[in-house]
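Bench notes, bay 3.
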Amino acid sequence: MLNKAQTTYLIKQKAQELGFMYCGVSKADFLEEEAPRLESWLKQNMHGQMHYMENHFDKRLDPRLLVEGAKSVVSLLLNYFPEKDSQQPNEGTYKVSKYAYGTDYHFVIKDKLKTLLQYINEEVGEVGGRCFVDSAPVLDKAWAKKSGLGWVGKNSNLITPQVGSFYFIAELIIDLELEYDGPIKDYCGSCTRCLDACPTDAIVAPYVVDGSKCISYFTIELKDQLPQEMNGKFGNWIFGCDICQDVCPWNRFSKPHKEPAFEPHPQLKEMKTSDWEEITQEVFSQLFKKSAVKRTGYKGLLRNIQFVEQTTDPQA
């Protein structure tokens, strides 16, 4: 029989083998600190039209309501930072957020999590649990923070000292008691680069992001017409936005990922302004067949391109 420390070590070793950057563990308990914050954020309508954020309030705060008998939350980070020559140019053409360059992360991570859960069952015995990748009411950043994987920065992203913040967060919630990690210190200090750089003033105060003002929200979540008062504020971003991460000093430590599935479609980095503006349904389907960009849809992407095109004149 393995003890808690041995089991925890085995899980972390297997996570590393599967390509996860870091793995941390916290006790499956009620998120007391998060409850008033989430309630206040929702009351101020900072979620905009993301009405799903209002659902399952209790489940978001207590993993034991998601997995019966849950004892541990295993948080995992998977790097998606691209090689320099894979990145789109900063100037001159329309831009897609780095996380959406390759295959939709939901599929990639879900497979890895299932493999990890199967491994736990083989090595430890029957363990009940569920895999979560940004598609259920789980407060990813809160659990990763509790597990010591980083601190939540002023731009509301999780930041890890050695690697920055260009990674996905996922969880296994299991009914197995493990050795728990503790949180680390906040190292944002007096830096306000993310607040100063946000073109839509979505970071309304340090550690508070009004989601309904974020370029990512407008270009992905909002299904209506884009508000005219945002005219000229998107730069060249047509799907998502990386500005608050790009300016974060901690991201100078970001290293390229080693996940083949996250490599961009060869055609993506060759796309010129004119290619984007003339994109057809066929090219969209081919280029973003397995990508998260499918979330906004062809019509949504066209809307975003036309909105940005009105106010910028990028050179092809």
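Next record in the batch:
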Amino acid sequence: MEKLNVALIGTGFMGKAHSIATAVVPMLFGAPVEIERRVIVDVEEKLAKDAAKNYGFSEYSTNWREVVERPDIDIVDICTPNDTHAAIAIAAAKAGKHVMCEKPMAMSVAEAEEMLAAAKKTGVVTMVSYNYRHTPALQMAKRLIEEGRIGKLLTFRGYYLQDWGADPMAPLSWRFNKAKAGSGTLGDIGTHVIDAARLLVGEVDEVNSIVKTFVPERPLPAGHFFGQRGEASKEMGKVDVDDHALTMIKFTNGVFGTIEVTRNAYGHHNQLGFEIVGTRGTIAFDYQRLNELRVAFADDPKDAFGFRTIYSGPNQPYGDLLWPVAGMGQGYIDIKSIEWYNFLKAIAEKKPAAPNFEDGVQIERIAEAILASGESGAWEKVPR
């Protein structure tokens, strides 16, 4: 079996999540290729050294440029703030490394297109880490749609609601800074919903949006910061990205729908969901109940008609590779592990992964159209 060495860039929460996923992939699935977690990188040496020990990497470094050029590195895993994605991904692709990149793919469409061009030139396998699409219940929804179980699709209603930004005194992390994040709530969590919409319904033709920033300033952080977990100083700083977006969508296949995303909705901790209505039924999913898929079929008997719940288990996608009994449940790391399994499988089979950099570019185009519509107040076409 082929052996590939992984370099992870970034030691924060996502770096930890990816590290656990790469550790457990062989246990859960039997990895399609053998991998070694060779080196982990952070600009601060102590963070890099501690992460190498705690996350199970053989080495650590503070220089990602040197690491991506090393001949013994085969996969570069990018878990850094958004403003560094393009530089790292382009360098890695030019060096012939396969690339896993956290979302959003880039700061802009132009950056994403540069990343895609570099990857196409060397033929490396790429994946953008829209991990929620790998959830077994969501994949079950895709299966039901493809089998025609809910008939012709009519509408899509998607949402991603969080509350960690609702407190106006929460520190101004890099996620509220356009220079670091590119966009706010839309890029951070809205792109997950866009990815789900493309996967389940199809391509987006045009959008009409309301985009708002309800909290225009926040306390500057008092040291290292990450959203609500950081400590606040008494000095205030400007929020220059969106924190709420509401979008109407026209899909190219005639389906229409809406997407709402916010980090300001008290009581909604991490609520990614959708409802898809068809001529023969409805499918509903909520990630806060990620092991459940709610379905209603028009041909159900009248005396038992209504929503029923399908519990994730061995009969759903990937379920046979996880736990033997429905209802035992999967969690966040299981989903990240499925993501890595699919990425490694694509490398082993020398096939494109999904979602790859081409998908990432189109998601960036949709996101930019939403922001443009928020400025113009008009319907904006999505380029293809």
